Amino acid sequence: MSTLWVAGFGSDLAEDHPGFHDDVYKRRRAWISSLAREHRVSSGPIPRVEYTPEEVATWTHVLSKLKDLFPDHACQQYLSSFPYFNFQGDQLEDISQVLKSRTNWQVRPVAGLLHPRDFLAGLAFKCFHSTQYLRHHSQPSYTPEPDLCHELIGHMPMLANQGYADLVQAIGEASLGADDKMVWHLTKVYWYTVEFGLIREGRDHIKAFGAGVLSSYGELKHIASGAPDLLPFDPFQKLPKMSYKDGYQKAYFILDSFEDAEQKLRALARAMKDPVQPFSL
Ligand code: TIH
Ligand code: FE2
User: Fold this and answer.
1) Atom 11, ligand 1: which residue's CA is nearest?
2) Is residue 73 classed as helix, strand or coil in its secondary structure?
3) Which of 13, 33, 102, 136 has its CA 20 to 30 A from that of 265?
Protein backbone atom coordinates (compact mmCIF):
# COMPACT_ATOMS: atom_id res chain seq x y z
CA MET A 1 0.00 0.00 0.00
CA SER A 2 1.30 3.47 -0.74
CA THR A 3 1.98 6.05 1.94
CA LEU A 4 -1.10 7.77 3.30
CA TRP A 5 -1.42 11.49 2.91
CA VAL A 6 -0.78 13.43 6.10
CA ALA A 7 -3.36 16.20 6.50
CA GLY A 8 -2.00 17.97 9.54
CA PHE A 9 0.86 18.11 12.01
CA GLY A 10 3.27 17.29 9.21
CA SER A 11 6.80 18.59 9.47
CA ASP A 12 5.65 22.19 9.94
CA LEU A 13 4.57 22.65 13.54
CA ALA A 14 2.13 25.43 14.39
CA GLU A 15 3.50 28.34 16.36
CA ASP A 16 1.62 27.31 19.50
CA HIS A 17 3.09 23.78 19.46
CA PRO A 18 5.37 23.47 22.54
CA GLY A 19 8.25 22.33 20.32
CA PHE A 20 7.92 25.16 17.80
CA HIS A 21 11.07 27.03 18.91
CA ASP A 22 13.18 23.91 19.47
CA ASP A 23 15.02 23.02 16.27
CA VAL A 24 16.62 19.90 17.74
CA TYR A 25 13.15 18.64 18.68
CA LYS A 26 11.72 19.46 15.26
CA ARG A 27 14.51 17.60 13.46
CA ARG A 28 14.11 14.57 15.71
CA ARG A 29 10.34 14.54 15.24
CA ALA A 30 10.74 14.81 11.47
CA TRP A 31 13.24 11.95 11.46
CA ILE A 32 10.94 9.63 13.44
CA SER A 33 8.07 10.60 11.11
CA SER A 34 10.15 9.69 8.10
CA LEU A 35 10.44 6.11 9.40
CA ALA A 36 6.66 5.84 9.23
CA ARG A 37 6.52 7.48 5.82
CA GLU A 38 8.96 4.94 4.44
CA HIS A 39 7.56 1.89 6.22
CA ARG A 40 5.60 -0.63 4.16
CA VAL A 41 3.50 -3.24 5.93
CA SER A 42 4.74 -5.84 3.45
CA SER A 43 8.37 -5.06 4.28
CA GLY A 44 8.23 -6.42 7.81
CA PRO A 45 7.82 -5.28 11.40
CA ILE A 46 7.42 -1.65 12.47
CA PRO A 47 10.92 -0.11 12.73
CA ARG A 48 12.27 0.31 16.26
CA VAL A 49 13.36 3.72 17.45
CA GLU A 50 16.23 4.13 19.86
CA TYR A 51 14.78 6.77 22.15
CA THR A 52 17.13 9.36 23.67
CA PRO A 53 17.56 9.64 27.47
CA GLU A 54 15.49 12.85 27.31
CA GLU A 55 12.64 11.08 25.49
CA VAL A 56 12.78 8.18 27.93
CA ALA A 57 12.60 10.68 30.80
CA THR A 58 9.49 12.33 29.29
CA TRP A 59 7.83 8.94 28.80
CA THR A 60 8.68 7.80 32.34
CA HIS A 61 7.42 11.04 33.85
CA VAL A 62 4.10 10.95 31.96
CA LEU A 63 3.55 7.27 32.73
CA SER A 64 4.19 7.70 36.45
CA LYS A 65 1.90 10.78 36.74
CA LEU A 66 -0.87 8.92 34.93
CA LYS A 67 -0.44 5.75 36.97
CA ASP A 68 -1.19 7.76 40.10
CA LEU A 69 -4.48 8.94 38.63
CA PHE A 70 -5.71 5.76 36.94
CA PRO A 71 -7.01 3.87 39.99
CA ASP A 72 -9.56 6.62 40.68
CA HIS A 73 -10.29 7.91 37.19
CA ALA A 74 -9.78 5.19 34.55
CA CYS A 75 -12.65 2.84 33.67
CA GLN A 76 -12.48 -0.78 34.79
CA GLN A 77 -11.91 -2.10 31.24
CA TYR A 78 -8.79 0.05 31.05
CA LEU A 79 -7.54 -1.05 34.44
CA SER A 80 -7.98 -4.72 33.64
CA SER A 81 -6.19 -4.49 30.25
CA PHE A 82 -3.30 -2.35 31.46
CA PRO A 83 -1.22 -5.27 32.85
CA TYR A 84 -1.16 -6.99 29.42
CA PHE A 85 1.35 -4.39 28.27
CA ASN A 86 4.94 -3.80 29.18
CA PHE A 87 5.23 -0.06 28.95
CA GLN A 88 8.89 -0.02 29.98
CA GLY A 89 10.90 -0.49 26.83
CA ASP A 90 8.32 -2.11 24.57
CA GLN A 91 7.96 -0.49 21.18
CA LEU A 92 5.11 -0.07 18.70
CA GLU A 93 5.79 -3.49 17.11
CA ASP A 94 5.75 -5.32 20.49
CA ILE A 95 2.59 -3.54 21.56
CA SER A 96 0.94 -4.33 18.23
CA GLN A 97 1.69 -8.03 18.81
CA VAL A 98 0.02 -7.93 22.24
CA LEU A 99 -3.02 -6.25 20.72
CA LYS A 100 -3.15 -8.86 17.96
CA SER A 101 -3.22 -11.66 20.48
CA ARG A 102 -6.03 -9.99 22.48
CA THR A 103 -8.51 -8.58 19.97
CA ASN A 104 -6.83 -9.13 16.60
CA TRP A 105 -6.26 -5.40 16.11
CA GLN A 106 -2.94 -4.08 14.84
CA VAL A 107 -0.96 -0.87 14.79
CA ARG A 108 0.51 0.88 11.75
CA PRO A 109 2.96 3.76 12.13
CA VAL A 110 1.94 7.10 10.67
CA ALA A 111 3.83 10.35 10.06
CA GLY A 112 1.14 12.73 11.34
CA LEU A 113 -2.58 13.36 11.21
CA LEU A 114 -4.38 11.42 8.47
CA HIS A 115 -7.40 12.58 6.52
CA PRO A 116 -10.41 11.53 8.66
CA ARG A 117 -11.75 9.26 5.91
CA ASP A 118 -8.47 7.31 5.78
CA PHE A 119 -8.16 7.12 9.54
CA LEU A 120 -11.75 5.91 10.05
CA ALA A 121 -11.41 3.35 7.23
CA GLY A 122 -8.45 1.84 9.09
CA LEU A 123 -10.67 1.26 12.12
CA ALA A 124 -13.14 -0.74 10.02
CA PHE A 125 -10.27 -3.17 9.34
CA LYS A 126 -9.00 -3.28 12.94
CA CYS A 127 -6.03 -1.15 12.06
CA PHE A 128 -4.99 1.69 14.31
CA HIS A 129 -2.65 4.34 12.89
CA SER A 130 -0.15 5.56 15.44
CA THR A 131 2.54 8.22 15.69
CA GLN A 132 5.94 7.18 17.05
CA TYR A 133 7.51 10.45 18.27
CA LEU A 134 7.35 11.93 21.78
CA ARG A 135 5.67 15.11 23.04
CA HIS A 136 7.93 18.07 23.82
CA HIS A 137 9.53 17.73 27.27
CA SER A 138 8.54 21.29 28.28
CA GLN A 139 4.82 20.41 28.45
CA PRO A 140 4.36 16.79 29.52
CA SER A 141 0.88 17.19 31.05
CA TYR A 142 -0.82 17.95 27.72
CA THR A 143 0.19 17.95 24.06
CA PRO A 144 -1.88 19.37 21.20
CA GLU A 145 -1.05 16.46 18.89
CA PRO A 146 -1.02 12.70 19.36
CA ASP A 147 2.38 11.30 20.42
CA LEU A 148 3.75 7.95 21.57
CA CYS A 149 2.51 8.43 25.17
CA HIS A 150 -0.98 9.12 23.87
CA GLU A 151 -1.06 6.24 21.39
CA LEU A 152 0.38 3.60 23.67
CA ILE A 153 -0.78 4.52 27.16
CA GLY A 154 -4.07 6.07 26.02
CA HIS A 155 -5.27 3.81 23.21
CA MET A 156 -3.70 0.37 23.54
CA PRO A 157 -5.18 -0.95 26.80
CA MET A 158 -8.66 0.07 25.63
CA LEU A 159 -8.22 -1.61 22.22
CA ALA A 160 -7.35 -4.83 24.07
CA ASN A 161 -10.94 -4.89 25.39
CA GLN A 162 -13.33 -6.65 23.01
CA GLY A 163 -16.53 -4.70 23.79
CA TYR A 164 -14.74 -1.42 23.27
CA ALA A 165 -12.85 -2.61 20.17
CA ASP A 166 -16.18 -3.59 18.58
CA LEU A 167 -17.53 -0.08 19.16
CA VAL A 168 -14.45 1.45 17.51
CA GLN A 169 -14.79 -0.90 14.56
CA ALA A 170 -18.48 0.06 14.22
CA ILE A 171 -17.49 3.74 13.91
CA GLY A 172 -15.01 2.78 11.17
CA GLU A 173 -17.53 0.61 9.33
CA ALA A 174 -20.13 3.40 9.33
CA SER A 175 -17.63 5.63 7.51
CA LEU A 176 -17.14 3.27 4.54
CA GLY A 177 -18.99 4.75 1.58
CA ALA A 178 -20.43 7.58 3.68
CA ASP A 179 -20.64 11.09 2.19
CA ASP A 180 -18.29 13.84 3.37
CA LYS A 181 -20.83 15.33 5.76
CA MET A 182 -21.35 12.01 7.48
CA VAL A 183 -17.61 11.33 7.62
CA TRP A 184 -17.25 14.64 9.45
CA HIS A 185 -20.04 13.70 11.87
CA LEU A 186 -18.38 10.31 12.49
CA THR A 187 -15.09 12.10 13.11
CA LYS A 188 -16.86 13.95 15.93
CA VAL A 189 -18.42 10.71 17.19
CA TYR A 190 -14.92 9.22 17.24
CA TRP A 191 -13.55 12.33 18.95
CA TYR A 192 -16.10 12.43 21.74
CA THR A 193 -15.90 8.68 22.40
CA VAL A 194 -12.56 7.06 21.46
CA GLU A 195 -10.57 10.21 22.23
CA PHE A 196 -12.48 12.00 24.97
CA GLY A 197 -15.25 9.64 26.12
CA LEU A 198 -16.41 8.97 29.66
CA ILE A 199 -18.44 5.99 30.88
CA ARG A 200 -20.87 5.46 33.70
CA GLU A 201 -19.89 2.83 36.29
CA GLY A 202 -22.53 1.71 38.72
CA ARG A 203 -24.91 4.43 39.80
CA ASP A 204 -22.63 7.21 40.88
CA HIS A 205 -19.30 6.93 39.14
CA ILE A 206 -18.10 8.44 35.90
CA LYS A 207 -14.78 7.15 34.59
CA ALA A 208 -12.53 7.93 31.64
CA PHE A 209 -12.05 5.66 28.64
CA GLY A 210 -11.09 8.23 25.96
CA ALA A 211 -7.41 8.02 25.04
CA GLY A 212 -6.96 11.80 24.91
CA VAL A 213 -8.04 11.95 28.53
CA LEU A 214 -6.11 8.87 29.64
CA SER A 215 -2.85 10.21 28.19
CA SER A 216 -3.04 13.75 29.56
CA TYR A 217 -2.75 14.15 33.30
CA GLY A 218 -3.68 17.83 32.78
CA GLU A 219 -6.97 16.96 31.10
CA LEU A 220 -7.71 14.11 33.50
CA LYS A 221 -7.41 16.51 36.44
CA HIS A 222 -9.47 19.13 34.58
CA ILE A 223 -12.38 16.69 34.23
CA ALA A 224 -12.02 15.49 37.82
CA SER A 225 -12.28 19.13 38.99
CA GLY A 226 -15.95 19.12 37.97
CA ALA A 227 -15.57 22.26 35.81
CA PRO A 228 -16.56 21.01 32.31
CA ASP A 229 -20.04 20.00 31.08
CA LEU A 230 -20.70 16.26 31.08
CA LEU A 231 -23.52 15.27 28.69
CA PRO A 232 -25.21 11.98 27.71
CA PHE A 233 -23.86 10.50 24.45
CA ASP A 234 -26.27 10.36 21.51
CA PRO A 235 -24.76 9.89 18.02
CA PHE A 236 -28.03 11.04 16.41
CA GLN A 237 -27.49 14.52 17.80
CA LYS A 238 -25.31 17.27 16.42
CA LEU A 239 -22.06 17.21 18.38
CA PRO A 240 -20.21 20.39 19.42
CA LYS A 241 -17.11 21.78 17.75
CA MET A 242 -14.02 19.79 18.72
CA SER A 243 -11.23 21.56 20.59
CA TYR A 244 -8.28 20.68 18.47
CA LYS A 245 -4.90 22.28 19.20
CA ASP A 246 -6.57 24.82 21.48
CA GLY A 247 -6.68 23.12 24.84
CA TYR A 248 -9.07 20.95 26.75
CA GLN A 249 -12.56 20.07 25.47
CA LYS A 250 -15.43 22.29 26.53
CA ALA A 251 -17.81 19.34 26.94
CA TYR A 252 -17.45 15.58 27.43
CA PHE A 253 -19.96 12.80 26.73
CA ILE A 254 -20.93 9.89 28.94
CA LEU A 255 -21.71 6.41 27.61
CA ASP A 256 -23.90 3.98 29.53
CA SER A 257 -21.91 1.04 28.14
CA PHE A 258 -19.79 0.20 25.08
CA GLU A 259 -22.43 -2.28 23.90
CA ASP A 260 -25.20 0.35 24.10
CA ALA A 261 -23.06 2.87 22.18
CA GLU A 262 -22.23 0.27 19.53
CA GLN A 263 -25.93 -0.48 18.99
CA LYS A 264 -26.70 3.23 18.64
CA LEU A 265 -23.93 3.57 16.09
CA ARG A 266 -25.11 0.62 14.07
CA ALA A 267 -28.62 2.15 14.10
CA LEU A 268 -27.11 5.42 12.86
CA ALA A 269 -25.27 3.58 10.07
CA ARG A 270 -28.52 1.84 9.02
CA ALA A 271 -30.45 5.13 9.02
CA MET A 272 -27.72 6.69 6.88
CA LYS A 273 -28.17 4.03 4.26
CA ASP A 274 -31.99 3.92 4.40
CA PRO A 275 -33.55 6.48 2.03
CA VAL A 276 -36.99 5.86 3.61
CA GLN A 277 -35.80 7.36 6.88
CA PRO A 278 -33.99 10.55 5.98
CA PHE A 279 -32.61 12.52 8.89
CA SER A 280 -30.38 15.50 9.28
CA LEU A 281 -27.59 16.27 11.68
N1 TIH B 1 -3.95 15.91 24.38
C2 TIH B 1 -3.49 14.54 24.36
C3 TIH B 1 -2.35 14.36 25.38
O4 TIH B 1 -1.84 15.33 25.92
O5 TIH B 1 -1.96 13.22 25.62
C6 TIH B 1 -3.04 14.13 22.99
C7 TIH B 1 -4.14 14.20 21.96
C8 TIH B 1 -5.21 13.38 21.85
C9 TIH B 1 -6.06 13.72 20.80
C10 TIH B 1 -5.70 14.78 20.15
S11 TIH B 1 -4.26 15.34 20.81
FE1 FE2 C 1 -5.82 9.33 19.64
Assistant:
1) 145
2) helix
3) 102
The answer to whether the CB of 187 is under 6 A from ligand 1 is no
Radius of gyration in angstroms for the set of CA atoms belonging to the chain, rounded to a whole number: 18
pLDDT tens digits along 178-205: 999 999 999 999 999 999 999 999 988 9
In sequence order, which residues have a C-beta less than 8 Å from that of residue 225 and are 6 or more positions away?
none
> HSE-up of 9 (CA within 13 Å, CB side)?
22
Give, as one character, the DSSP assignment of residue 115: P
Residue nearest to atom 9 of ligand 1 (CA): 212
Q: How far apart are CA 63 and CA 51, in angstroms?
A: 15
The C-alpha angle with vertex 207 and arms to 119 and 94, in degrees rounded to 5, equals 45
Alpha carbon of 157 to those of 75, 210, 256: distances in Å?
A: 11, 11, 20
The pTM (predicted TM-score) of the whole model is 0.93
**In angstroms, rounded to a whole number, what is the distance separating the alpha carbons of residues 24 and 238?**
42
Q: Is 249 in the pocket of ligand 1 (CB under 6 A)?
A: no
Per-residue confidence band for 4, with pLDDT thresholds at 50, 70 and 90? low
Q: How far is the CA of 212 from the centre of ligand 1 (A)?
A: 4
Say if CB 218 and CB 198 are below 8 A apart: no
